[in-house]
């Protein structure tokens, strides 16, 4: 509850911040710009928090199922609050149709995280998954740069390659390791079966997003049907 309130306050703060001309001139972009700023704040806080938790207690990695730390537990609660807040923000601002993929992702994350908070098991797996927020820092910067039409392409180009490296290091690598671990060591029943199913569905979503990213930033000639597409209402940039 406290986390939801924190992100509600950050959303109000984002309303007061100045917006680039390219955002002000397109009313459909205003909500998405503000929403991405809140998402950026969560990525910075949660990503650094996950790194600190694993650095401070590296022994957690030896017991993914039953390892426990207060820091990791609070991190999962904190991120659950963000996902709840973002879900409400999408629904109350009538963005459900354009952001349905995010709603599916958030429903998966909230249900999985609540089960971890209640049982106290697999918290280390959640902390490993939240390393993805380090990657999301640069992914969100990419989307903000595209929306603001920054005149200098150098910043976008630099972020493009950093984003790719971070995607591999903090999104694909932890996800692949946890998928291997769950399929090999976790019992396929009860909470284990539920989390494994969530993990496999998340694998499919991550690979889909990765293919979009590659087509957009590295193989633009492979894009289909994006020319002239108005994506002002979409939280995730299809192009």
UniProtKB/TrEMBL annotation:
Biological process according to GO: membrane assembly; phospholipid homeostasis; plasma membrane organization; regulation of membrane lipid distribution
Annotated keywords: Membrane, Transmembrane, Transmembrane helix
CC per GO annotation: plasma membrane
A Pfam family this chain is assigned to: TRAM_LAG1_CLN8
Annotated ranges, domain TLC: 28-222
SMART domains, A to Z: TLC
Protein name: TLCD1 protein
Organism of derivation: Piprites chloris (Wing-barred manakin)
